[in-house]
Specification:
InterPro entries: Cell_div_FtsL, FtsL/DivIC
Helix content: 55-70%
Number of helices: 3
Oligomer: single chain
Keywords: Cell cycle, Cell division, Cell membrane, Coiled coil, Membrane, Transmembrane, Transmembrane helix
Order of helices and strands: HHH
Protein name: Cell division protein FtsL
Family: Belongs to the FtsL family.
Shape: rod-shaped
Subcellular location: Cell membrane
Radius of gyration: 55 Å
Length: about 120
């Protein structure tokens, strides 16, 4: 009976008191830039800066050359206009009537025996 009495005994479970677990602080890993990455970043920045300076220099030299070309072209137009004006003036001054007037004013006379015909241009 004693065995049966033990069997019928209800076991009262004692609540297990859990000891509070110490909170584990999660360490936030800071993403640090390594030395190699720093070198790469700096090298990239230097390359970009050098390329931009080179491009700006080339652009300025191209612009300067363009300005010089435009100046020379305007001078060429001006000189060609002067040449046209001078050709017109030569044509006006080399007319037969004008030459005869100047010759008479200087006291020359026309001797047709001494006149030679030169083919004109």
């Amino acid at each position: 009976m004693a065995v049966r009495a033990r069997q019928f005994q209800t076991y009262v479970e004692q609540p297990i008191i859990e000891q509070p677990k110490p909170k584990i602080k999660q360490q936030v890993k800071k993403k640090r830039i390594t030395a190699k990455e720093k070198v790469l970043y700096i090298a990239f920045i230097v390359v970009v800066a050098l390329l931009s300076v080179t491009i700006l220099h080339k652009q300025s030299s191209i612009q300067q050359s363009t300005i010089e070309i435009q100046t020379i072209q305007s001078e060429i137009k001006e000189l060609s206009n002067q040449n046209v004006d001078l050709k017109v003036k030569v044509a006006e001054l080399s007319t037969y009537d004008r030459i005869m007037e100047k010759a008479k004013a200087l006291g020359f006379t026309l001797n047709e025996k001494n006149v030679k015909v030169v083919p004109g241009e």
